[in-house]
Amino acid sequence: MSERTVPARGAARQDARSDASHNRAVQRILIVDDHPLYREGMVSALRAHLADVEVRGANSAEEGLAELERNADVDAVLIDLRLPGMDGFSALAVYAARFPTVSRVVVSALEDPRLVQRAFDAGASGFIPKSMAVGEVAAAIRRVLEGGVFTPEVAGGAAPLGGAVANDLTLRQLEVLRLLGEGYSNKEIANALEITERTAKAHLKAIFEALGADNRTQAVLTAQRLGYLLPPPELA
């Protein structure tokens, strides 16, 4: 009796995903980050820069995996390296094995060239340092969506703390802003992000300048109005 070859379930799903991507104009990205304020702020910021791209969010690698299982229309996934449960590199490997047609981009506050190389060795199409401004991140994502690869310049010392103009914050500053919105002090922000208090103050100064704010309250209110932060539950 001759054997009949049955396509694997994953292969069939990938064929369906490929067909779906060719038959639609809108592209979709998924941001996997465990903190809702930062994640939603990044979603809102990227939506402003990528008007023709649908941006979604997931709060863990496991939730991102479930989202990919449910939907065959995600083109790229941005994966934060520091995640609870399945960490970023583990997620990168699992996503690559399960959904090879989905582009994978690592997001990290660390800019060690060894991490960058490890990410690309694991099949990433990009590595985005959190020192990049959101507009630059959007351009990097656009390159990946068009089939390219984004490689950061991480060889030359520390990245600048500034670079935020016209409401265009860096990803690191979005993290600081998220903690600011939760009422963290400068010292608490520094401890949470494992940076010095001096660095935290420098980030806050850049945030105030970018948002045109004179103090912490104004910065939070402006960030909520622009969509970088969620308003309090009673106002949402």
List keywords for this structure.
236 residues, alpha/beta, Rossmann fold, Arc Repressor Mutant, subunit A, 2 domains, 5-stranded parallel sheet, 49% helix, 11% strand
Structural write-up:
This protein is α/β, with parallel strands linked by helices. It has two domains: 159 residues, Rossmann fold (3-Layer(aba) Sandwich), CATH 3.40.50; 76 residues, Arc Repressor Mutant, subunit A. It is built from ten helices and five strands. Strands 2-1-3-4-5 form a five-stranded parallel sheet, sandwiched between helices. The longest helix is centred in the last third of the chain and has 15 residues. It starts with 8 loop residues before the first helix and ends in a 10-residue tail after the last helix.
Provide the gyration radius in Å.
Answer: 19 Å
Q: What is the H level of CATH, i.e. the homologous superfamily of the largest domain? A: Response regulator
- Weakly predicted, low-confidence segments: 1-14, 16-23, 155-166
Our measurement of the CA-to-CA distance between the termini, rounded to an integer number of angstroms, reads 65 Å
CATH fold name of the largest domain: Rossmann fold
